[in-house]
Amino acid sequence: MDNSGLKTLCSYNLPDYVFQAGKKRYYLFLCTGILIFYTIALFFICGRSLAQEQTFKAPVVVSRIIEMDVRQPVKMVGTAFPLRESIVACSIEGLVVEFPVKRGDYVKKGQVLAELNTTSLKIRLKGAKADKHLALIEYERAKELYEGDAISHSELDEVETKLIAQEANVEGIEDDIGKCTIKAPFDGRITEEHTEVGQWLKKGDSVVSMLQLNYVKVRVPVPEKYIQYMKVGDESEVIFPALGNMKRTGHIVHIVPQADKRARTFPVYVKIDNKDDAIKSGMFAEATFETGSLLSATMILKDGIVRRGGMEFIYLAVDGKVAEVPIQAGIAHKDLIQIIGNVKPGIDVIVRGNERLRNGQDIQITGRMDPGEIDD
Question: What transmembrane ranges does the database entry give (predicted)?
């Protein structure tokens, strides 16, 4: 601000130091006024936001806590096997001219594993096609002669049979040429090489060994006292200690009805997704089955559990507000899980929208998802 302008506001001829003191008081009053204005505005805004927050009700979906009998889990050891294992063989004899794969390669179904020499077969095919063409000409002539009563029906049949034989000969050679290209029967990994370029293969000789590992089957020898409680389709949680106790969920696909005569155990196979190729054939596994004695348990949908800071909680819906309850998870059964804590069946637990709730928060129930109302 221009000092001369401020001085003209004063009707007295004041000393300069008095004028400077007045200027400072002027700025002080101005800053104080601005500060008071912004403080009031901020208080109003915060108060309005707080009022809005207090009136906001978080939308949630709830589910009923139930009591049910479940079988206690029993852990058994097993071994991982490939879903498929095959020694790919040659169905025709010939000289290997191409062998583009090697041990450890991943190949897709239909990918070429080896090529055999087809030169002699193609020469034979050329001659066979010429014979077929000649036989077709003879057949057309014979038809004309037959229609003119120049030859008998049996003579026409003889010419037609000759044509059919030539067609079959061509198809047979074409099939042999196709067999010279040996292809992968399924998606998998090459584990062994049984031939090489320049080797003569006889019919039935091995070309490669393959494993299909996008899924694996864990073979578990199950004691006879538990086998009665198992059925195809049952879920099993499998742990692989060699992979840092990695857990995978699988389902029973085979129950072999023949027991081992010495151990009295029945082979049970659990199929597990392995698209990341983490599980290798022959790995040790620990499979858990729900085959133990019956236990009455308090159960909720698995989505009702919130894990935070190394602890487990559930959020109950009580009179339109959130009630936080610490619990301990127990036995899992399909989409349900046992909870151990200060809770009783019949109360509603929040299973959707529970990620950021806090104790005592207002909620609005927008839906229900009780056990038994969802797909297994």
Answer: 26-45
